[in-house]
Amino acid sequence: MSYKRLERVNALLRREIGEALYHVFAGENIDLGAVTVTSVHCASNLRNATVMVSIFGHENERDAMLRRLSRKAGELQSMINRDLTLKYTPRLSFKLDRSVEKGDHVLDILAHMPEANTASNDDHSTTQDYTFEEDQEL
């Protein structure tokens, strides 16, 4: 399968799984507003797919939420099979994506850096005016 087609299938699966979560977990006590399907990595033969999910907040409940998602994988696969036309419906496995948390942590560190370095760099960041003759002497 071509790389571009596999990327399109991954994007399509990501969108469909994100929408299907609300139907599969309807009426259940799970905060789907905190769950984001960040990416899907489908095998080239379309037999297996790893679904990366980010769970905002709920630090103590993340493992339980991942287990609940894994238990509903069959229902999600059925919905994908019904809604999409693929040669094979991939078997879904869910993994926690911590990249969003890591990015937030880096941004938090950058936001709390001392402002002293930026003031000294401002003096050197201005462009110097020079004439063409000065440039030729260098």
Would you give an account of this structure?
With 138 residues, the protein is of the alpha+beta class. The chain has a single domain, classed as K homology (KH) domain (GMP Synthetase, Chain A, domain 3, 2-Layer Sandwich). 51% of the residues lie in helices and 16% in strands. The chain has a three-stranded mixed β-sheet. Helix 1 crosses helix 3. The protein is globular. The relative contact order is 0.14. The mean pLDDT is 80.
Write the layout of secondary structure elements.
Blueprint: H1 3-24, E1 35-42, E2 48-55, H2 62-71, H3 73-83, E3 91-96, H4 99-111, H5 116-124, H6 132-137
Parallel strand pairs: 2-3
Antiparallel strand pairs: 1-2
Brief rundown of the structure:
This protein is α+β, with helices and mostly antiparallel strands and 138 residues long. The chain is built from six helices and three strands, in the order H-E-E-H-H-E-H-H-H.
What descriptors fit this protein?
138 residues; alpha+beta; GMP Synthetase, Chain A, domain 3; 3 strands
